[in-house]
Amino acid sequence: MTALSVDQFREYANKTESEVGKVIVGQTEVVRHVLVSILAGGHVLLEGVPGLGKTMLIRTLGEALDLKFSRIQFTPDLMPADILGTEILTDQDGRREFRFRPGPLFANLVLADEINRATPKTQSALLEAMQEGSVTVAQQTYRLEEPFFVMATQNPLEMEGTYPLPEAQLDRFFFKVNVDLPDVKDMVEILDRTTGKETPSAGRAISGADIIQMRALARTVPIASHVKEYIANFVLATHPDDPHASPLVKKYVRYGVSPRGGQALVLGGKVTALLSGRYNVAFEDVHAVAPAALRHRLLLNFDGLAEGVRTDDVINELIDEVKIQG
Length: 326
Known about the structure:
Layout: H1 6-21, H2 28-40, E1 43-47, H3 54-64, E2 65-66, E3 69-73, H4 80-84, E4 85-92, E5 95-102, E6 109-113, H5 120-123, H6 127-132, E7 134-137, E8 140-143, E9 149-154, H7 167-170, E10 173-178, H8 184-195, E11 206-207, H9 208-220, H10 225-236, H11 247-252, E12 253-255, H12 259-275, H13 283-294, E13 299-300, H14 302-306, H15 311-321
Parallel strand pairs: 1-9, 1-10, 2-11, 3-6, 6-9
Antiparallel strand pairs: 4-5, 7-8, 12-13
C-alpha cells in the first residue's frame, strides 16, 4: 500500500467536504471537526436542538464515505442486546446450538441517534466498542472491522426525556461538536434545497482504505517538544488546584481534563496541520481544536452550573492565558 502525500491527504479531505457540502448548507466548522475526528480515529458527539440537521450530516457523511453504515435510534426501551447482537438457538442438521447474530453496531460508521434518550445501561453498552474496537457477548469477544466510528447525536440535557451521558462515556468521544442555528442566508438556502423538486445527494469521495491511510499519515506528523509541553500545561491548567489555572477554572471548575483530552489535542492538531498543507503542528492547530476536544471533559461545579457558565468560555480564557514557550 503506497503511502499518501500531504497533498493527497488534502485532496481527499477537500473532496469529502465538497460532497457533504452538496447536501449540508453552511456548518463549515461542524463538518471540519467531524472530519478531523474521523481522520484522527475518534468518535464524535453532536449536540443541538432537534431539526438542525445533525442526523442528516452523519447520513450524508455515510454517503460520501465508502463504508458500511448503520443507524441506531436510541429510545428509553432500547436494550444492550439490540445494539450489540445476541445469541440465538439454531437447528443445524438436527443439532441445536447457539449462534451469534451481530447487532447494528457491526458496521464501519455507526449513527447513534439521540443517544441520550436511552438509559445509562444501554449507553454503557457502547463503551467497549468505542474504546477497544470489540464487542463481548456471552463471554465471547468479537472484533469490529476497521475503520470503526461512532457518530452520536444528542439533544440538550434540559429537554424532557433525556438521560445525561456518564462521564466515562463522554470522555471516549474524541470531539463534542455543538450544532447551532443557521443564519438567514443559510436558512434560505436550506429551504430552497429541501422544498424543491430535486433532493440533493452526496457522491462517494473516499473509501475505508483511504481513511486508514490518512490516519496513518496523520500519526507520523511531527510535533515539536515545546508544542507538546504547551499542550501538557494547557491540560493541567484546566484543574482548579493547578498553580497556572485561570480565574474561571479556579472559581467554576470541579474537575479538569484527563490525559485523553491531551491526546485529542495532539491528534486533532496533527490532522488540522495536514488539512492546512503543513507537516508540522503549530499552536494555531491546537487552538482550532481545543473547544471541541475539551468542552465535554471539563466538569463544572455547582456555582458554574448555577450561573450558566459555558465550558467554552473557560477554554477560551485558557487559550488567552496559558503562556506559549519557545
